[in-house]
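Archive maintenance. Older records in this collection stored only the sequence; we are now back-filling the structure field for every entry so that each record is complete. The fields below show one back-filled record exactly as it appears after the update. Entries are processed alphabetically, and Corrinoid adenosyltransferase is next in the queue.

ARCHIVE ENTRY
Title: Corrinoid adenosyltransferase
Organism field: Lihuaxuella thermophila
Length field: 185
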Amino acid sequence: MKIYTRTGDEGKTGVIGGRVHKDDIRVEAYGTVDEVNAWIGEAIVRMNPQVHQDMIDDLTEIQHELFDAGGDLAQAGKKRQYKVTDEMVTRLEQLIDKYDAECQPLKRFILPGGSPVSAVLHVCRVLTRRAERRVVTLCREQETNEEVRRYLNRLSDFFFTLARAANVRAGVSDVEYKRGGQVFE
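Back-filled structure field:
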């Protein structure tokens, strides 16, 4: 099988159920999910397996789930069973609680950064928020799996928490936003 097909040369791409323009909101949504997945790969290669193996394992599972989410979002017209479920959202909540237990309680907003791993996880977080915005638009305009929207919302919280835990493991403090007061108690 050849990698190039030339079928997209006219600005359209295939989705499950037909062909759409490459700038269709459905393509924007699953394309942004794919960006998140690529940045997770960057985070993983920056991690030390002796320090971060549990994080690597969790992120690898999330990469698979994001492929599932992309497949769900790529369905236009032709119906099949969706793969992203409420159970996946619940699992993310459990992971958030697990990694949050490693961190000091938040008192102020924090800036992205600290350790290199944390900085990349913050990139994952903001790209996940963008993917979520694209999926919100898609859900308003077309039929799709709305569990993906919930999953992405929780996933961005997961990346925030994981970034903080990565700083703890690196012995680096979170970078607090100092121009505001204490906002969390």
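Update note: The longest strand covers residues 12-15. The CA atoms of residues 125 and 160 lie 6 Å apart.
Entry marked complete.
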